[in-house]
User: Which sequence fits this backbone?
């Protein structure tokens, strides 16, 4: 199977393949899985699709996760595969380890993952475990190697997210403060990355920040 065929199934939902790999023993994938494709928003294309979906406005918890589960379960079924998700565990799937296996997603200086075209805005809505190999898995060079200024290192106003790690309480305190208004529109560290800058709509970033501030973990 070619990546373009997968992308064609995902495009109506504003989703795309972020990277893929051929599993090895120990990857924790279902028996018979010949390829795993990580799936996430195709830039800003997902946001209007999700906003028009019933989950967005039904008032029930976790609308984006429920939408992702519905959509990707149907896509996987059409490919005789299985959809796996970074939420709803246990079991909790090792999405970070899987991402690093793709050759398109890398560790950034600030502990977040960075994608070759989406930069620090990369996020996963799920993964497709497929019974056939992907013929043309793309690989890229780590974008940080050619990022001279590395603005992600210093973009966090309270220095809660730096190469030293992520101080979650400090981030939450800043978000709750008057000075955190800009961060409530989207994490400034993610927005500072020149790779994929502007790909994520402001409304989508604010949605994620709002969900984060309401969560307890
Ligand atoms: S800002 Fe530069 S160094 Fe930081 S994650 Fe983006 S590409 Fe890498
Ligand atoms: S949301 Fe703001 S305070 Fe939190 S890590 Fe991002 S830049 Fe720092």
Assistant:
């Amino acid at each position: 199977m070619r990546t373009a065929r997968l992308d064609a199934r995902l495009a109506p939902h504003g989703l795309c393949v972020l990277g893929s790999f051929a599993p090895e023993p120990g990857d924790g994938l279902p028996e018979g899985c010949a390829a795993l494709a990580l799936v996430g928003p195709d830039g800003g294309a997902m946001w209007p699709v999700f906003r028009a979906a019933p989950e967005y406005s039904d008032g029930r918890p976790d609308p984006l996760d429920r939408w992702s589960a519905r959509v990707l379960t149907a896509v996987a079924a059409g490919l005789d595969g299985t959809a796996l998700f970074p939420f709803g565990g246990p079991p909790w799937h090792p999405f970070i380890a899987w991402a690093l296996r793709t050759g398109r997603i890398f560790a950034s200086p600030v502990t977040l993952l960075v994608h070759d075209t989406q930069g620090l805005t990369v996020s996963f809505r799920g993964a497709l475990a497929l019974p056939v190999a992907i013929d043309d898995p793309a690989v890229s060079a780590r974008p940080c190697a050619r990022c001279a200024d590395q603005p992600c290192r210093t973009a966090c106003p309270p220095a809660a997210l730096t190469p030293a790690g992520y101080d979650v309480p400090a981030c939450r305190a800043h978000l709750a403060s008057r000075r955190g208004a800009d961060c409530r529109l989207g994490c400034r560290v993610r927005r500072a990355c020149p790779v994929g800058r502007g790909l994520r709509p402001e409304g989508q970033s604010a949605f994620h920040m709002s969900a984060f501030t309401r969560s307890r973990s």
Notes: Strands lie at 15-21, 35-41, 82-84, 105-107, 113-115, 126-130, 161-162, 165-166.
